[in-house]
Amino acid sequence: MNCLQSWPEPVVRVQHLSESGITSIPDRYVKKPSDRPVFLESSIGSELNINMPVINMANLYSDDVLLQQKTADLIVDACREWGFFQVVNHGVSHGLMARSREVWREFFKLPPEEKQKYANEPRTYEGYGSRLGVEKGISLDWGDYFFLNYLPIGIRDQNKWPSLPFSCRELIAEYSEEVVKLGGKLMKIFSSNLGLREYYLEEAFGGEGNMSGCMRVNYYPKCPQPDLTLGLSPHSDPGGFTILSPDENVSGLQVRRDGGWVTVDPMPNAFIINIGDQLQILSNSKYKSVEHRVIVNSAKERLSLAFFYNPRGDMLI
Ligand code: OGA
Ligand code: NI
């Protein structure tokens, strides 16, 4: 492991590149031909008729026991087959979701000096960042981000969260609290669906209130050559599971499916849930942690909020 305390070369903000008006992207962002996205035919799930399952969470608490069971079964199938699903009627206020995305859009519109106050370092990644990895000369993705820790409370440091826009810290706290509640409900369902006690996974994650939760706000600026690069290279999420609030206007997330990439068609006000590596392991690989990536486009920027619901840092999985 490389334990550099700082970046090996000056950090370039992708937003800055995008706004500078360049018509071709620097080589560092150009992916090798086999890794580039294909825009020729439609890859949108709904057009291919293979969209990921959409779960109405209200049905899990219905008086109709059959409907409850059917919905739980849909989640099992989604976790096994896709590693991904969308949830509606999830209990998080739609207004809060929209306001949270909006406040982050405003953050990225702030002057560079203001954002620079939160510039991150590879030791913790906390703050405003533009790259992952400290290897000199590595290929870069077309995106900036803000990474912050929410749980456990011991590592939460609100001074590292943006103080501007004014409502940002408050919204982060309110949004994260609601999302963690949703995560708790999903944990029970994931446990029961494995035939385990409702609290099994919660305990495996470190016990009530001890799990780890962090957020990565992804900002993908407009790109003059979207066919040459990616907003986020293929990866699986390393932790428990992810609760993603995608951009309401622009799609971009692609999920590995039968050797190809399916572009997710987000439902309004839905969250996209995906299984991470550690939950795959805890489930004895019944649930799949599936590779995904993000494509960018030349017409619109894209913003997403990824909340990672993870086991406590020192849990043995
Ligand atoms: C992530 C991620 C997807 C997106 O942050 O791990 O996969 O749509 N984000 O931004
Ligand atoms: Ni991811």
From TrEMBL:
Tagged with keyword Repressor: no
InterPro entries hit by this protein: DIOX_N, IPNS-like_FE2OG_OXY, IPNS-like_sf, Oxoglu/Fe-dep_dioxygenase_dom, Plant_2OG-oxidoreductases
GO BP term, example: response to molecule of fungal origin
Molecular function via GO: 2-oxoglutarate-dependent dioxygenase activity; metal ion binding
The UniProt record lists the keyword Iron: yes
PROSITE patterns registered for this protein in UniProt: FE2OG_OXY
Fe2OG dioxygenase domain boundaries: 211-311
Keywords assigned: Iron, Metal-binding, Oxidoreductase
Domain of life: Eukaryota
Family stated for the protein in its record: Belongs to the iron/ascorbate-dependent oxidoreductase family.
Protein name: Iron/ascorbate family oxidoreductase
